[in-house]
Amino acid sequence: MIGLVTAERGIGETALADALPEVVVVLFAAVTHLADPWFLFGLLAVAYWFAGDRLAASPRRAGATAVAVVTCAYAAVALSKAWFAAPRPPGAVGPADVPTWLPGLLSRWYEAQVLSDGFGFPSGHATGGAAAYLALALLYDRAWTARKRLLAAALVAVAVAASRVVIEVHYLVDVLAGIVLGGGVVVVALWLAGDPRFRGRNASRGDRREPTAGLDPTPAFLLAAGVSLAAAGVALAGGHTGEVVEAGIGIATGAGGALGWRLVDGDEPAVPVRIAVPALAVTGALWVGAYALAGSTGVTLAATTVAVVAVVGLPALPERAEAMSNGRD
Question: Residue 82: how many CA atoms within 13 Å on its side-chain side?
C-alpha cells in the first residue's frame, strides 16, 4: 500500500531541521524519550500501582484503562506501518551527524536516537505520546483542572511529535497522522471501556461526575490483541519480519492485560512499595528480554504475556498474600 503514502512525502521540513543549532537538535533528541515505549509503559505502570483517590475516583480502573489505551495505540501503529510500508527519511538510515562537542557516552546515545529502522508512517512516538498523555489527562480527572490537564497533555504530545521531525527520523505528515491516530484511539478505547463521557446520552450526570468508577479495560485490551493479530497477518503477507515481531508483542500485551485484569476487582488500594519495587525489576527484565530475544517468537510472546499479566494483576497480590497467610495460621 506504499502508493497511498509515498516515499517522498516531505514538504521541506528536513531543510528546516538541518538549519537548527546542534544544541537544539540534541535537546529534542532527549525530548523524544517522553514517548519511548519503555518510558510510557513504565510511567503508566507506576501510575496504575500508586495513584490514589485524589487523582481519580477509581485509580486502579483509570490506570489499567490507560495501559489498555496505549496498547491499542501501538497495535494501530503496527497495523498502519505494515499496511502502508512507507520508508523513513533518508537521514534516519545514517550515518549519523553527531556533534563533535558531545562526550563519548552521549555521542553513542545521540547516534542511537537519530538512527531508526523500520517503516515511518505513522510515527509510533507521536501516536503513543498523543494516546498516553491524553488518556492520562482524561482518566486522572481529579488532578488540576480539565483545561490544565489537557493543555499539559497537548504540549507534551506536540513536543514529542516535533522532536521526531527535528531529529529527522520522521516526516511532518508522519507525526501529524500519529497525533490524529492517537487521539482517535483514545476515543474508541475509552468508549469500549465504558467511559460515560463517550457514551452519549445514555450516561447519567452521576456517571459523568465520576467517569472512572465503572471502567472495564478488558474490551480495549482485547481490541489491541485483535488489531495486533491483523497487523501480524498484513506483515506476514508483505514479508515484513520486524513488523511481525512488533505485532506479536502487541498480541501478547493485549491478551496479557485482559488476563491480568481478571485477577483484580478494580477497587484495590495502592500497591505497597515493598512489593512494587521488586515487581518492577522483574517485569522490566521480562520486557527487555522480550525485545532482546525477538528472534525467538515463542519466548518473546511468553515473556511479554507474563510481564503484562504481572503488571496488571499486581494490585491483587497483597490481599491474596494476606489471605494465604491467614489461611496457614
Answer: 28
Task: Report CA Rg, the chain.
Answer: 20
DSSP annotation string for 258-278? HHHHTT--S---PPPHHHHHH
CA distances from 297 to 76, 85, 289 (A): 20, 22, 12
40 residue type, one letter = L
Burial 46-70 (b: 16+ CB within 10 A, else e): ebbbebeeebbbbbbbbbbbbbbbb
pLDDT at 320 over 90: no
pLDDT digits (tens, 9 = 90+) for 127-156: 999 999 999 999 999 999 999 999 999 999
Helices and strands (H and E) in the chain: how many: 14, 0
Q: List the grid coordinates of 329.
A: 495460621
| Closest alpha carbon to 59 in 271, 233, 282 | 271
Percent of the chain at pLDDT above 90? 73
C-alpha 53/C-alpha 36 separation (Å) is 28
User: How many whole angstroms separate alpha carbon 246 and alpha carbon 16?
Assistant: 32
Bond prior to 95 in cis (omega within 30° of 0): yes
Quick one: average pLDDT of 152-161? 98
Q: What is the pLDDT of residues 64-100, one digit of tens each?
A: 999 999 999 999 999 999 999 999 999 898 888 899 9
* DSSP at 194: T
**200, 195, 233: which is closest to 215 by C-alpha?**
195
| DSSP code string of 16-37 | HHHTS-HHHHHHHHHHGGGG-H
Lowest mean pLDDT segment, chosen from 17-21, 41-45, 127-131, 242-246:
242-246
Report angle CA 290, 294, 300 to the nearest 5 degrees: 40
Rounded Cα distance between 29 and 18, Å, is 14
